[in-house]
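Lab notebook, bench 4. Still working through the backlog of constructs that have no structural model yet. Next entry is a single chain of 166 residues. Request: give me the structure tokens for it.
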Amino acid sequence: MPAHPPTVVLDAEHVRFVEGAASIIVASRNAANMPELVRAQGCRVSRDRRRVQLFVQASQAQALFDDLRRNGRLAVVFTSPSRHRSLQLKGDDASIARARPADAARVAAYRAALVAELGSIGISEALARALLAGDDDTLSVVAFTPVAAFVQTPGPDAGRPLEPAP
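Model written out:
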């Protein structure tokens, strides 16, 4: 059996970025390699910066959850709409759990920050809030260990991998 890929440890600046006002898209694939995409509603990185948690609406993510339960593989893209800065993380050990009541405050703060970020590029508050709408009673957490990370910002560094932890 092959060794598990090395863990990617995010630096403090990357943690600020992924936990901030970035648009977050979570993707999986099924056995036929058909993709499934869901918008996340915030992110939390563990203190040791080796584990990432994403908040998603279970009511919008059942196909994604099915894929993750089958193969654990996901890719997540974090993008700053105003700066076009993007970072992609990949993992192969995704797990799903119900969010804790305390997570609702983090999700609310994320929504407010992203609404403001989208407003800075001319997207109306009503449209931004509709984009982030969901039933917080179905809020779930997708947790994973990044095993690959890539700069996705357009330009000469696009596709450059971030270095894994030793």
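Notes after review: The mean pLDDT is 92. Residues 52 and 155 are 26 Å apart (CA to CA). Flag for follow-up if needed.
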